[in-house]
Amino acid sequence: MKLTKTDYLIYRDCEKNAWLKVHKPDIYFDKPLSAFDQSIIETGNEVDTLARELFPNGVLVSDRNETEETIKLLKSKTPVIYQPVFETDLYKTICDILVWNKDFNVYDLYEVKASNSGEDKSAKDKLYSYDIAFQYLVLKELNIPLGKLFVIRFNNQYVRGAELDIDQLFLKEDFTEKVMNVVDGVSLEMKTAYDLLSSNKEPFGSCKCITRGRSSHCTTFSYSNPQVPDYSVHDISRIGMSKSKLTELIDSNILLIEDVPEDFPLSEKQRNQVLATQLDKIFIKKEEIKSFLNTMVMPLSFLDYETFAAGVPRFVGFSPFNQITFQFSLHVLSDKNKEPEHSEFIFTKNENGDEEFISALIEKLPKSGSIIVWNKSFEMGRNKDLAKRNPEYKIALEDINSRMIDLMDIFSNQYFVHPKFKGKTSIKYILPILAPELSYKVLDIQEGASASDTWNKIVSDVYSKEEKLEKIQHLKTYCKLDTYAMYAIWKHLNELD
Ligand code: SF4
């Protein structure tokens, strides 16, 4: 076995998970990648390939399993090498780009990251330093003459013009000093990781996520913690933020929410969730719900957007990872005693559809009345993005935002607590309980990340003409259910006696 950079980085995150990946891949890879995770990988590949244009005319090492090709290219001092492969007795790594620096007779190393220069910068810088240190140590052991060590990532200030300017899109940041600061520690850690991962002895017992909230758990959690039920104290809302509380429960051998003691310190919202489960009881604050619904002005427009976040900006005015707003569904209720009327918009060309989207939105939305959404920060945020790129529509989009009401507030404010919501406020949890006749489970597209991915494939010409029409229909059906679901939930709340 050779320790790869990927496995080393997983090990740094969690020893047990890394061991399972190496020794029990059937368990590690048991769950298929989500559409979201898949899209991260695809964006990474796209960005890797694009960044090579910063150093044109390089040679791509095609065989990722062999080092022979790389050795030949190094011997001939090939000026630019993409994806060179290196192996020592214990370790294996693939670099993104090596560039021969003839002034110093060394190779400069470039690690490409499909991420922005702004968000979580210090955490990412730390991670990237460990990542490059691994490569540095492997190449050093092989006596490859190394110069500077760089990270290439997106410049979040970049705004695309008619042509993509990759010199402006990417930042090249010198990480040499950051890497040198951690390299001794990485050297020791690599050996420890190698020893653990090359051993057949499985790390014993529960893993450390036993004291972390559900959202921190990886896909192998239930394998390592078979005693933990699917709905457990780990699912208490925001319990992961208060590690000491969860640790206390686990130390007291309390896994079921039903067993949480009455006097155990919890926030009001956590206590309500626990009580609903323990008593198997629904809590409804009818007066608060009534007051909330009374703030809504007829006609009611139930509105939902679908978007795609393109890492590499595709159109004029877009920055890295800006959302392309490609679809909306709208149900308008003008008479409370009738069914709402449906309309929709979808843009399926590989062009900037901002103008068409905004025009359709303005045309189809009533000029007055409340606009009901679920998790309004998302739709409001997209309208702000659209207004920034299309200032001529700023006033209209601001008006839309000023009329928005978030139906999710009823559930996040706990005016309605149901044991089967399991502390969640996503519409995917609320709908099956309040309107069981409606279901996402029967749809071909069941969540937003799949909708994004489907749209991207449509505009990237991955599908045949027939498939494309079918996929467009799936997108319409999915988005339509989102807005009809909001109407159905609103109706249910409105009919509470
Ligand atoms: S659930 Fe957490 S601690 Fe357990 S294996 Fe996964 S990442 Fe590691």
TrEMBL record:
Residue ranges of every copy of the DUF2779 domain listed in the record: 302-426
Protein name: DUF2779 domain-containing protein
Database matches in Pfam families: DUF2779
Domain of life of the source: Bacteria
